[in-house]
Amino acid sequence: MLKIDYEFRKGIFFIRFIGDMNKKLFLDKGKEIKLLLRDNKFKYIVINVNYLETIDNDGINYLFDIYDMTKKEQGYLVLCDKFRLLNKFNVPIIDSELEVL
């Protein structure tokens, strides 16, 4: 099961993915996040994948889509990934969300 937690704090939009991220589980919830990003045009976004248990190629492609959306809107994306699961992203990677505050 996938849980998506998000909040806007101090000018930064935080997205936390918790559980298993595969196509079946995030399809509906993922649309909601993309709509939020598109409609609000957040300048600073932090995606936290520290609590993911599994992620498949569709989940990775979904994160790339968020990165592309952010870049297109001239925003900044930081990936919180203490295990370096997604080190092929060309974005800053941090261990903890506290590093951006």
List keywords for this structure.
single chain; 101 residues; alpha/beta; Transcription Regulator spoIIAA; five-stranded mixed β-sheet
CATH class: Alpha Beta
Mean pLDDT, nearest integer? 89
> What is the CATH third-level topology name?
Transcription Regulator spoIIAA
Radius of gyration over C-alpha positions, nearest whole angstrom: 12 Å
Helix-strand blueprint:
Elements: E1 2-9, E2 12-21, H1 23-40, E3 44-55, H2 57-72, E4 76-80, E5 93-94
Parallel strand pairs: 2-3, 3-4, 4-5
Antiparallel strand pairs: 1-2
Structure report:
The longest helix has 18 residues, at 23-40. β3 (44-55), α2 (57-72) and β4 form a beta-alpha-beta unit. The N and C termini lie far apart (29 Å). The protein has helices at 23-40, 57-72; strands at 2-9, 12-21, 44-55, 76-80, 93-94. The model has no long low-confidence stretch (mean pLDDT 89). It has 101 residues and is an alpha/beta fold. The relative contact order is 0.19. The chain has a single domain, classed as Transcription Regulator spoIIAA. α1 runs parallel beside α2. It contains two helices and five strands; from the N terminus they run ββαβαββ. 34% of the residues lie in helices and 37% in strands. It has a five-stranded mixed β-sheet with strand order 1-2-3-4-5.
In summary, what is this structure?
Helices cover 34% and strands 37% of the residues. It is of the alpha/beta class and 101 residues long.
